[in-house]
Amino acid sequence: MSDITKQSLSSLIKNIKEKKLSSVEITKAFIDRSEKSNELNAYITEDYSSALDKAKKFDQKPNLDLKLPGIPIAVKDLFCTKNIRTTAGSKILDNFIPTYESTITQNIWNEGAILLGKLNCDEFAMGSSNETSFYGNVQNPIDKNLVPGGSSGGSASALAGQLTPITIGTDTGGSIRQPASFTGTVGLKPTYGSCSRYGIVAFASSLDQAGPMAQNVKDCALLQEIISTYDPKDSTSINFKRNEYSKDLTNNIKGKRIGIPKEYRVEDMPKEIEELWQKGIQFVKDCGAEIVDISLPHTSYALPTYYIVAPAEASSNLARYDGVKYGFRAMGENLIDMYEKTRSEGFGAEVQRRIMIGTYVLSSGYYDAYYLKAQKVRKLIKNDFDEAYKKVDAILTPSTPSSAFKIGEKKDDPVSMYLNDIFTVPVNLAGLPGISIPAGHDDKGYPLGLQIIGKAFDEQNILNIAYAMEEKIDFKNKISDWWIK
Amino acid sequence: MSIDLKTIKHISKLSRISVDEQKAQKLVGDLNSIFKFIEKLNELKTDNIEPLTSIAETTLKLRSDEVKSKDIREQVIKNSPQDNEDYFVVPKVIE
Question: Which of A117, A360, B50, B73 is spaced 20 to 30 A from A17 at the CA atom?
Answer without folding.
Answer: A117
